[in-house]
Specification:
Helix content is 0%, strand content 52%. With 118 residues, the protein is mainly beta. The strands form two sheets. Strands 2, 4, 5, 6, 9, 10 and 11 form a seven-stranded mixed sheet that branches. The protein has a four-stranded antiparallel sheet with strand order 1-3-8-7, with no helix packed on it. The chain starts with a strand and ends with a strand.
Length: 118
């Protein structure tokens, strides 16, 4: 069974930084792509950044150059370093473990609120 627990959200002024962490339980973390998604009020949940088991990354255009996703397989943890934050980055951020290719499902964390004030 996989559980994902996010931490690191909070309130920050525009231009500031936050680092989100997502700790995973279970045995499939190291072989699974991991992602960070976000959902603003009244909007759908969208992908922000993704990292494969091999460490390849991709980002939504709006965060390129500002956000960095990374993973530590020994700690079963994925991170999202967020710099130069903007008010439009305000959302609930969710961690995702993608096991659709071998288990047929995704796993989600409970979400962590990020609020950027102008």
């Amino acid at each position: 069974q996989v559980q994902l627990v996010e931490s690191g959200g909070g309130l920050v002024q525009a231009g500031g930084s936050l680092r989100l962490s997502c700790a995973a339980s279970g045995s499939i973390f190291s072989i699974s792509p991991m992602g960070w998604y976000r959902q603003a009020p009244g909007k759908q949940r969208d992908l922000v950044a993704r990292i494969t088991s091999g460490g390849s990354t991709n980002y939504v255009d709006s965060v390129k150059g500002r956000f960095t996703i990374s993973r530590d397989n020994a700690k079963k943890t994925v991170y999202l370093q967020m710099n130069s934050l903007k008010p439009e980055d305000t959302a609930v951020y969710y961690c995702n473990l993608d096991s659709t290719s071998y288990l047929g499902r995704n796993y989600w964390g409970q979400g962590t609120q990020v609020t950027v004030s102008s």
